[in-house]
Write a structure and sequence with these properties.
The protein is α+β, with helices and mostly antiparallel strands and about 200 residues long. Helices cover about 55% and strands about 5% of the residues. The chain binds benzoic acid (BEZ).
Amino acid sequence: MKLYINRASPFARKGRIVAREAGITDRIDEVETTVSPVAANEALARDNPLIKVPALIADSGEALYDSRVICEYLDTLHGGRRLFPSVGPQRFAALRRQALTDGILDALVLCRYELAVRPEGLRWADWVAGQRRKIFGGVDALEAEAASWADEFNIGQIGAACVCGYLDFRFADWNWRPGRPQLAAWFERTARRPSVSETAPPA
Ligand code: BEZ
């Protein structure tokens, strides 16, 4: 299988963590590719018309996207502990947490583009403030839950690790840790997990 990634992308990181937790990295060729909201990438566009990473080319040749579909697909390829709980309240708690963390990541990536790619004179401070409300509201919701996670590590916690890692990577000056001791302690432990440390964004 071929997995288009960009090491900076928190959505690609979700897929990379799932592949490691599932123990199937030997079946996946990670292909680093450039993505930009303002530049073409013809090779990626042939497999994913949305020109986003991650995109997975399965052994059958079928292209799969987005990160939610890829992660759930990869979770069908191994016999170990399910990263998407298959039934009951645990399933919907994990899916709801994935929705929460994907929503935070969407807002973070939009802010990254606004603050790093958009020409300075065109930036819109009120819009960034609106995204920050979503981001920190979401991070506060994770803080309220983190103490109850114990050793649970499914798609919900994988998303949370990608949120914390991307905040540290692109928004270190936003200083998310003060007032969020549970999430900070959880991420300090979780960052040492091999699937998480091996997929850390580039220094
Ligand atoms: C980034 O450089 O922050 C980035 C790269 C790819 C996708 C999303 C974000």
